[in-house]
Amino acid sequence: MPPSASFCFSSVPGPTVSSEPLQVGIVLGGVAPEHEVSVITALQAAAALDRDRYTPVPIYVAKDGTWYTGDALLEVEAYRDLDALREDALPVALAPTPYGHLELLEDRAPGILKRLQRPALRRRIDVMLLGLHGGPGENGGVQGLCETFNVPYTSAGVFGSALGMDKVMSKRVCRQAGIPVVDFVALREGEWAGREAAALDECEATLDYPLVVKPARCGSSIGIAQVNTRAELDAAIEDALRYDDKVVVEKAVEALREINCSVLGDGHEATPSVLEEPVPSDDDAVLTFQDKYMREDGEAAKAEGGTKSAESSPEGMAAQDRIVPANLSDERTETIQDLAVRIFHQFECAGVVRIDFMIDESTGRVYFNEINTIPGSFSFYLWEPSGVSFDALVDRLVTIARRRHRDRNGRVQTYDVNLLAEKNLQGVKADEAP
């Protein structure tokens, strides 16, 4: 039975009373090394939205942190020239409302005459579809902004996003919960600078080569390296510190099979996808950014049940070589799927995530590797063979976001006591004696 058979999401009343399509803010870009990957992921999701029910509104976060909108931002060709894109797009600010949605307000800089000659943009956003990878877009920063503004959003909450983004804390939480992780050492930049030799000694005393070095809070295999010598370890740590001030050094699994599982749901219910086995290129001991996103046309093995993107549209994670479903026994498949759902709940996730595991074929042991709370391409290539089409997947993401928003707003959020009333100010005024 496909995982989708267990889903039974009830309809969720929205904040609007009209039957017009929901305005879905497609948030993409971001201040993070995965900027371009985010653009691909978000535009794929925007293309999958049912236009009878949803109107996508692009909200592009430039590399300098400025926010923009404009219909051209839904076209991938617009991103080939980022300077021209920003010249034509409209800078915007976000304004909260008391009605459970946001408003995009055009941010008019002085001297832009062509924009001053027409009414300023003002656009409602009913739900935020977060397609950001890394940085504030995935570590809880933007999630916190959405909660502060009281607007529904797709993705895990602040806690799950922050925890999932930090590989060190993720491993510690899983280890505490009895979920196996490989042995590792965590290094902060302050512990490395000026005492490199001592830090290298600690790594070598704790772990045996080969080792894998990663930035603790970066995705898309950016800054990752496998090393076999002290000199390589030194160089890999230095490189990883270019992306983050915390680094993970972990024991490499030599008889390695990487197995990934996506999970879709929330605290009420969660369902695992089929499993995948990513395939690194022949020259790489670990998956690289190039393996995931930069395969030439015809080189990548398509996910079973997947569809080819338009010629002008990058395929994102769908371009990576992978075996779907992974060639594992039913028993091992079920074990990994059960672990994935357990981790999903442990991290208090919502929406769609991808959880990456490692199998040591020499021992048969399964290890948690990392969790991606906004996975590349929203892992649609794992849901299509699981019986959930891409348009159904994004529809469920919006449904989950609105249900969580409804649940959150159904709880007491204020306490009806005015501590600043006159009778409560006694003893508070600075000029009164105690």
From TrEMBL:
Record carries keyword Ligase: yes
Residues that coordinate or bind Mg(2+) 1: D356, E370
Record-listed E.C. numbers: 6.3.2.4
Location within or outside the cell: Cytoplasm
Cofactor (UniProt): Mn(2+); Mg(2+)
Catalytically driven reaction(s): 2 D-alanine + ATP = D-alanyl-D-alanine + ADP + phosphate + H(+)
Residues bound to Mg(2+) 2: E370, N372
Residue span, ATP-grasp domain: 171-399
Pathway note: Cell wall biogenesis; peptidoglycan biosynthesis; Glycan biosynthesis
Coiled coil regions, renumbered to chain: none
PANTHER family, per the entry: D-ALANINE--D-ALANINE LIGASE, D-ALANINE--D-ALANINE LIGASE A
Chain segments carrying region Disordered: 298-321
Co-factor remark: Binds 2 magnesium or manganese ions per subunit.
Protein name: D-alanine--D-alanine ligase
Keyword Ribonucleoprotein: no
Residues at the catalytic site: E34, S220, S377
Alphabetical UniProt keywords: ATP-binding, Cell shape, Cell wall biogenesis/degradation, Cytoplasm, Ligase, Magnesium, Manganese, Metal-binding, Nucleotide-binding, Peptidoglycan synthesis
